[in-house]
Q: What sequence folds into this?
């Protein structure tokens, strides 16, 4: 393979190499600096007289004497079952002082689109132990359900809690967790790793770390590395994989940075016009395939800049993913954990994962009723601020109190509290007790006969505690 | 012969540059050793700029480019129904056979099965004089749909030979003025198929969805837009329309949408039965799935592939409904390609020709007299729009509104309180109401339009009253207005809300909608009568019989139930003093 010393221009993360033999688009590039340092890059633009390379490790130190080698293949990740329990860099190299990983094979990290015809519809209920997810925004196996958060909100805790507690009731196999950090701080990374170590989850995890001070370009490959590892474990080793990606906002910032360096025409708020497609190529790698046993469930986390859900990053994400869990600063200020605001939250695959054979016959209707009452109760808070509670009708008063009780009893739970779905639904029925049956219009008479006013909550709470042990 | 072989000069993403051959705009080319499919989108001196429908990784400068000399075309013939295609009419099951679970590149798959034999029944005779578009025979394509075989463009004259029997689509079934006619033809997707005459719409497309049929009806041959932020229920609405609309043929385009959602459509549709025929709905459906992670250029093409197929069935004299979910993804694909071409961007980075392209597409809808049959055909287009942040002032929504006459605005607020379908009744509109009024009045009930107007009036008044209620509470309102609020609630909960996931409620025929309206308005009248007798408003609102209207949604035998409910309301309210 030829080496070139024909760098003509270096700008930001990009290196322009002149007079090369034909080089393939997307090829991996090795860059040897005069001081012996080796960097990697990828071809972004190739033509007969100029090749543009984006350098993963940043262009510091590159000069005209630097030698460039085109490797003739796309970026690949060496994969092996031994990756489990390991901590890798954002570019897929071990950084935990452990032994070298002997690859079973090397996989292209770009990943091809799954043929919609060979996809399997996700339909297995995942119990996360978090009421606001299980009851009202149910996660199912093979779904991509992001957490829309804001800076300073406890999204990391929630992600960890889900990773720890997620199970499919009735199935023994636990999830394998693949954790990809993009541009998070060292402190946050330590927090994740120590939690993984403490709970023993690390053995069943693969961690990819691209920290805030790691190069931005590397951030663009980190999620692809993680998903390639996930596909390998899911489809070749029949594992159920939960992929946590955090923080997609940093990823998109990098995308914008590279776009600007390439002098592309920017789209909304300076983000590149192809950001939708780019994000889709990450998110759409969640799913299940007919005839294969494994699955990939994705929980991407992003922080909405300025808590603005219409910002391009959450906006484009919401159009691709199958719902979203939205965290609220207002609830967080009220000291409610997890501060999930169910009103803007949604799980599009919920209906496929719930019901008599999967969770319970009343699940859907309880969820609808909770939504309806809480929405109305929250609206009334605005009214109360103006006219005072005395001016409300009895029904409105009940709804107002319902909203408060809902936040206190149903939303709030302990960071280690793992509620069963039955426990969660019972809390719902307990909340309905203060409302006359005829006002529960979203619930059918048969289900009201079966569950309304039945006091099982003490038992089910005991149940939960036993299960925790 | 013109030189048709050139070589690649530059590759940067899905747009590549080649030199050294002759090309016309929109010619289809084969790029590189793997013969990736592409389309010429710009000519610049020596340079030919090509958008490639497949992933371009690994392509090198110097690789060969071959011009096929043909524009992007689809194969039109029997076998399209029940199929599922990608954006350039490659059948996904065939791709799965050839490539496995993932979509790789460089695989060519024809849109129709060239080996399958169809039973062709000639309806024209030897010696008949025919022209393009004339129907010369039939094929039973699916249980419920007869495929009409038409004379292709460019053939005209006397039939010199025609035979019935079992043939593949490659067999010659007739000769017209010595030209061979097969059961299929190729058509360039970007060119609208010609018609004899465009007509104006006069029949409603009955959707089985109460809010659409009652408040904002769409005409067959009309155009509707459903814009809404994510999570407001665009896709569910589109799917409901695809399932229950009374069109003969459905073309459903999943353009840049979620893979799992397309899979859901694929697994669910084959099990659905048509309420009219009792046969599988799939029999009349063509699905086009180009998910968001499939190549962006193919996404741009998918909309054209869909409309060309729709036009073909329209030409047979069928009413076709085409759902495009979502046109915003299509517009974004245009934007992406345009920015790679470094074109001067218009509003929000969209190309300046966005509005022209949207208008051209929607203009391919309409009720028409086809070339070859007296039976009218129509295409109804229902385009979903995904405005960023739910902001309807963005370019795609605005340009769409300019050409569509029915506007179904989805509202995130309604969706959040689980009011489905979450169509906002105050901002939505339909300009077909007047055109369709005679049809509803003579086919459903003579007071249809009156009832609809009364209900719209109540809903609008509710909105005004709610502003006051927000300030002072509902008890402060005069009695009459409190009744209005109660009637409005009944309309919202019992008429407008509809459960797409309930076996019965998922489809509601016009008569049922009418009877529900009638019963609700009956309550309104009873309540006002009671008020004038001096009954207190609180007691009227407390009556329980009216709540039974809601139960009707979930039962098939609605007529009896509604008649008894009306009687119960009369006696319950009549007893009040």
A:
């Amino acid at each position: 393979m030829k080496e070139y010393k024909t760098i003509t221009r270096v700008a930001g993360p990009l290196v322009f190499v002149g007079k090369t033999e034909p080089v393939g688009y997307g090829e991996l590039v090795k860059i040897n600096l005069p001081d012996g340092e080796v960097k990697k890059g990828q071809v972004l633009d190739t033509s007969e007289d100029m090749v543009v390379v984006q350098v993963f490790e940043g262009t510091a130190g590159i000069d005209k004497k630097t030698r460039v080698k085109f490797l003739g293949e796309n970026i690949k990740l060496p994969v092996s079952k031994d990756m489990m329990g390991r901590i890798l860099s954002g570019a897929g190299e071990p950084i935990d002082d452990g032994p070298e990983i002997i690859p079973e094979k090397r996989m292209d990290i770009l990943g091809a689109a799954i043929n919609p015809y060979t996809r399997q519809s996700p339909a297995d209920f995942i119990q996360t132990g978090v009421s606001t997810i299980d009851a009202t925004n149910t996660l199912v196996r093979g779904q991509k359900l992001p957490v829309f958060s804001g800076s300073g909100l406890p999204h990391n805790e929630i992600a960890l809690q889900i990773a720890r507690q997620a199970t499919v009731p009735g199935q023994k196999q636990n999830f394998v967790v693949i954790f990809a950090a993009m541009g998070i701080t060292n402190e946050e990374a330590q927090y994740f790793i120590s939690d993984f170590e403490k709970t023993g989850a690390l053995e069943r995890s693969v961690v990819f770390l691209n920290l805030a001070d790691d190069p931005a370009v590397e951030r663009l490959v980190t999620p692809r590395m993680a998903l390639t590892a996930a596909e390998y474990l899911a489809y070749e080793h029949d594992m159920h994989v939960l992929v946590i990606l955090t923080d997609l906002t940093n990823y998109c910032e990098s995308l914008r940075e590279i776009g600007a360096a390439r002098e592309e025409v920017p789209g909304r708020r300076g983000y590149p016009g192809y950001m939708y497609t780019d994000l889709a190529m990450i998110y759409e790698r969640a799913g299940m395939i007919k005839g294969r046993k494994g699955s990939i469930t994705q929980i991407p986390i992003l922080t909405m800049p300025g808590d603005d859900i219409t910002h391009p990053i959450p906006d484009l994400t919401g159009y691709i993913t199958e719902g979203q869990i939205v965290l609220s600063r207002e609830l967080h200020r009220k000291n409610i954990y997890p501060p999930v605001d169910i009103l803007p939250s949604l799980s599009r695959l919920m209906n496929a994962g719930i019901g008599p054979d999967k969770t319970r016959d009343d699940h859907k209707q309880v969820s609808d009723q909770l939504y309806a009452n809480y929405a109305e109760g929250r609206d009334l808070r605005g009214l109360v601020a103006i006219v005072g509670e005395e001016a409300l009708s009895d029904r409105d008063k009940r709804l107002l109190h319902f909203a408060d009780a809902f936040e206190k009893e149903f939303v709030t739970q302990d960071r280690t509290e793992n509620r069963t779905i039955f426990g969660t639904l019972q809390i719902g029925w307990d909340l309905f007790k203060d409302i006359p049956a005829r006002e529960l219009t979203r619930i059918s008479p048969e289900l009201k006969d079966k569950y309304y006013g039945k006091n099982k909550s003490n038992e089910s709470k005991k149940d939960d505690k036993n299960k925790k042990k | 012969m013109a030189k048709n072989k050139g070589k690649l000069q530059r590759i940067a993403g899905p747009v590549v540059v080649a030199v050294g051959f002759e090309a016309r705009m929109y010619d289809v080319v084969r790029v590189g050793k793997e013969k990736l499919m592409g389309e010429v989108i710009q000519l610049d001196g020596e340079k030919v700029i090509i958008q490639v429908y497949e992933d371009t990784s690994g392509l090198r400068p110097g690789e060969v480019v071959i011009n096929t000399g043909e524009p992007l075309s689809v194969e039109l013939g029997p076998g399209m129904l029940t199929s599922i295609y990608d954006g350039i009419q490659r059948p996904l099951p065939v791709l799965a056979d050839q490539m496995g679970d993932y979509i790789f590149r460089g695989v060519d798959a024809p849109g129709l099965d060239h080996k399958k034999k169809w039973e062709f029944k000639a309806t024209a005779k030897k010696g008949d004089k025919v022209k393009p578009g004339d129907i010369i025979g039939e094929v039973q394509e699916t249980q419920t749909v007869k495929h009409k075989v038409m004379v292709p463009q460019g053939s005209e004259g006397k039939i010199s030979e025609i035979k019935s029997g079992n043939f593949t689509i490659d067999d010659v079934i007739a000769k017209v003025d010595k030209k061979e006619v097969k059961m299929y033809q190729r058509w360039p997707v970007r060119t609208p198929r010609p018609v004899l005459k465009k007509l104006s719409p006069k029949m409603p497309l009955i959707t089985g969805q109460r809010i659409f049929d009652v408040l904002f009806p769409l005409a067959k041959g009309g155009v509707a837009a459903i814009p809404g932020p994510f999570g407001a229920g665009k896709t569910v609405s589109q799917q409901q329309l695809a399932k229950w609309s009374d069109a003969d043929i459905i073309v459903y385009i999943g353009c840049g949408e979620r893979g799992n959602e397309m899979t859901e459509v694929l697994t669910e549709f084959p099990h659905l039965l048509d309420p009219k025929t009792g046969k599988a709905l799939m029999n009349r459906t063509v699905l086009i799935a180009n998910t968001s992670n499939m190549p962006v250029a193919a996404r741009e093409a998918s909309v054209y592939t869909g409309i060309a197929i729709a036009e073909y069935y329209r030409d047979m004299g069928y009413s076709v409904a085409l759902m495009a979910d979502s046109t915003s993804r299509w517009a974004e694909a245009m934007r992406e390609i345009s920015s790679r071409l470094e074109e001067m961007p218009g509003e929000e980075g969209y190309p300046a020709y966005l509005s022209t392209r949207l208008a051209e597409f929607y203009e391919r809808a309409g009720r028409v007299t086809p070339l070859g049959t007296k039976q009218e055909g129509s295409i109804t287009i229902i385009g979903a729009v995904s405005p960023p942040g739910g902001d309807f002032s963005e370019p795609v929504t605005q340009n769409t509104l300019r050409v569509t006459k029915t506007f179904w605005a989805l509202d995130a607020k309604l969706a959040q309180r689980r009011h489905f379908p979450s169509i906002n009744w105050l901002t939505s509109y339909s300009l077909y109401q007047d055109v369709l009024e005679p049809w509803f009045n003579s086919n459903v009930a003579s007071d249809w339009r009156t009832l609809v107007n009364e209900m719209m009036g109540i809903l609008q008044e509710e909105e005004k009253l709610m502003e006051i209620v927000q300030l002072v509470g509902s008890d402060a309102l005069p009695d009459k207005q409190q009744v209005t609020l109660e009637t409005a609630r009944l309309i919202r909960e019992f008429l407008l809300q509809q459960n797409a996931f309930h076996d019965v409620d998922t489809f509601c025929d016009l008569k049922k909608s009418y009877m529900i309206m009638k019963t609700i308005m009956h309550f309104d009248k009873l309540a006002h009568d009671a008020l004038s007798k001096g009954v207190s408003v609180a007691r009227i609102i407390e009556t329980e019989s009216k709540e039974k209207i809601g139960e009707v949604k979930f039962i098939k035998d609605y007529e009896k139930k509604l008649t008894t409910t009306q009687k119960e309301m009369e006696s319950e309210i009549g007893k009040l003093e």
Observations:
- The first helix of chain A runs from residue 131 to 134.
- Chain A touches chain B through 85 residues (CB under 8 Å).
- Residues 457-469 of chain A have pLDDT under 50 and may be disordered.
- The two ends of chain A are 60 Å apart (CA to CA).
